[in-house]
Amino acid sequence: MKAKRLYHSVRLLLTHGGARRARYLKKHHILGAIGDNCKWGPWLVPLYPELIRLGDNVHVHKTAKLVTHDMLNRYLKTRNPDDDFGQGEKLGCVELQDNVYISMNVTVMPDVRIGKDTIVTAGSVVTSDIPENSVASGIPAKVTGRFDMFLALRKMSRGQCVPVKNQEMEPAVAEEVWARFLKRRDK
Fold it and tell me: What residues does 137 pair with on adjacent strands?
């Protein structure tokens, strides 16, 4: 089983683009389920991938981690050899329902469901379920806003968005963004 996971991880590493990696995962039935229009950023196949389910339109940043197990029982057994903590690893499922965006450096712990229409912001650690129509952030992640409100605010600020190509921008665009930033700070 280790060799199979390693093989698929190498294939993911060689596959450019989150949409292509998601199609690869789906084609080879690597995750428990994966919906349509998903993007999978991570280059490694997580341990016990069959315990992960993605709905439609789920985007997972390449530095995010979806964790399906912990090995604390092994550690606790070495610390307290006379106590019974159960078998080696504790397993848990991770479910990302439809229209979920997992930002950079997010860790989703076992036994977590993230409801539809949800954004989890950068650096968060999700240790419990997040309801639908949420923006969640922090360690541990808590609901800090509503997805529908975030959507409305993002539409209002669409004039601040600029086109970039291949992650490069023209110097004039950078100057415009800096000017807008400094103007907000001087108020």
Answer: 142
Tell me the C-alpha distance between 186 and 182, whole Å: 6
Rounded-to-integer distance, Cα 17 and Cα 39, Å: 8
CA separation (Å) from 95 to 4, 32, 136, 156? 23, 9, 15, 31
Per-residue pLDDT tens over the stretch 34-74: 999 999 999 889 989 999 999 999 999 999 999 999 888 77
For 180, phi and psi rounded to 5 degrees?
Answer: -65, -40
**pTM recorded for the entire structure:** 0.85
Is the Cα torsion angle 144, 149, 153, 158 positive or negative in sign? positive
Distance set, CA 9 to CA 62, 94, 100 (Å) = 13, 19, 23
| Catalytic residue of the set 16, 59, 61, 69 | 69
pLDDT digits (tens, 9 = 90+) for 4-42: 888 888 988 889 899 999 999 999 999 999 999 999 999
Work out the burial of residue 165: count CB atoms within 10 Å of its CB; fewer than 13 is exposed, 13-18 middle, 19 or more buried.
exposed
Task: Decide if 69 is catalytic.
Answer: yes
